[in-house]
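User: When convenient, might I ask for sequence and structure tokens for a protein?

AI:
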Amino acid sequence: MGMSIFGSRKKRILVNDVHSHLIPGVDDGAKTLDESISILKDLEGLGFKQVVTTPHIYRDLYPNDESDLKVKYQELSERIKELKLNLELKLAAEYFIDDHFLSRIKNNVELLSFGDRYVLIETSFSTLPLIWDEVIFELKSSGYKPVLAHPERYQYIMDDRSFLERLKMNNIKLQVTAVSLIGAYGVGQQKIARYLVKKKWVDFIGTDLHNRSQIEGLNKTHPNRFYQKALALPLLNYQL
């Protein structure tokens, strides 16, 4: 089951996460194995059963390689088994759209995807890359299904919401960050996140967890009415 009910108010909870940064020491997420385990224990305590962790692959800032990430993921997975956590960890990646990413798709590099070949992508927060259409075309041609991470946080979408309609028409999936719904990233971001919920355009909800300090915000999100409305949508999280 993708969702379950707890407490007297029958609040829904999400049990499958699709966006986090828990591979230690590879990006701006968890720094150590102990920190990763601590965050995973917190997620287990919140009711999560499956976590897709998505380290950055961004040549200019986090020049990670799929094969190296698999090795570090395996180390973390083995530790989870040793501790007998009641939680399954899976590996994907959050790919920054740039020329390097485009060349990797064209060269048939096996991307780190999740579920039904979903690939999490992001762009600069300020501007849409000129190669956007080409990247989307190449991803789809290679059999991948693009998922835009945190669309509510891009300035070019806050400036022009009609771009969201274009995304939906092109069958690009949208992953909203849970805490955006309570304003964790700002009022403008919150408005877009809630707009997406009202339009029923949210395909995935993700935590985008980087560190333990964000757990408190995630906890505060659970009773929020917009978050509960989001969880009532036919999210693709429930199919993982």
Remarks:
- Confidence is low (pLDDT under 50) at residues 1-8.
- Residues 110 and 219 are 35 Å apart (CA to CA).
- The chain has one domain: 3-239.
- The radius of gyration is 17 Å.
